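The protein record minuted underneath.
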Amino acid sequence: MLPRLLLPSSLRHGKLSATRSLRFFSLTSVHRDAGLSSPKVNYDDKYAEKLQRRAQEQGKSVADLKAELKEQERQRRLQRLKEESSKASEVLSDSFASTSSSSPSPATTSPSANAPRKDSSPVKPLSSIINFDKLLETPHTPEQISLLWRAYHESRSGGTGRGYLCATVPVETYQKMMDVATKYPTFVLPVPRGNAQVESGSNEPAYEFYLMEWGFHGSPPEPTTTNDLFSSFKASSSNPQTSTILFTPLQEYKLRQSFATPYLVLTHYTDLVKTHGLVLLRGEITPSGASAAAGTSEDGARFMMSQQDAQLLAIHVQRFYLWNEGSDERAVLLKAFHERPSDFKWEDLLKHTDISA
């Protein structure tokens, strides 16, 4: 007996309507508290005697003392994150409107960030996020850029990092995925739904399927500073293409087709490939209306998808588009989806979307 699939009936038989015109890399899901929650230390077992003595000395209860120590540790971790974010903001200059009422100073805003686009790409340019003048002014190693990229996204959404994924991808890894994606730009991926309504008496797991679509947006130029007098005379870029991946629930797509709203957008920025050998991955979860319940974070922000589901979909992209040893069966599924739809079986897909496999 097959698990219940949360799909339109026409899609349960392997039919998909026309779509719109690692070795895993280190993916960072920026969780609700960006690592600011109190550390999970068993104070009762490890420090019981010391806690009791210190509580008596300070005239407090053990419970009050433990809560105080946890809050002190949380504040120390918060301070470390602020320091990292401060360093990142000197180079990464995206709008701070959601976290601060003040505008970025001219010293931290790249002049090119506000320049009009000269192309038709729908992708937000990396120059609006990274201050290339600051980045190129002092040599930065790929490791330093990776740390800045992570710290920057952890500082979003009032310091919670909610609504974003981020990673740095090795160029070779990205190129392998691109080679596959240009041949097979669409696929479907399941996300488990443990709280879904199923038939009475059924113990079968439920899944919601997402349509994923790759988009390719040309090769960005190598970054230059405003002091580079010859930047406009440089040859065309040799960077790989920038790409995006849209994730839209199949049910949503069936209802609205090309007007359907993607719940998650992954963007691969390739601007730093030639200069630093890095592809920067940025995932943005679409904010939802005030009435939506899914994906609500502790700070009150609401999103169309939970942080965990977004990370799961990003991992699935690697599993199906990064063909390495052990991924032969997943490659067969992806090929069948495009080349032999009649051979594509949903039950086989579910077997290979178990990330523990």
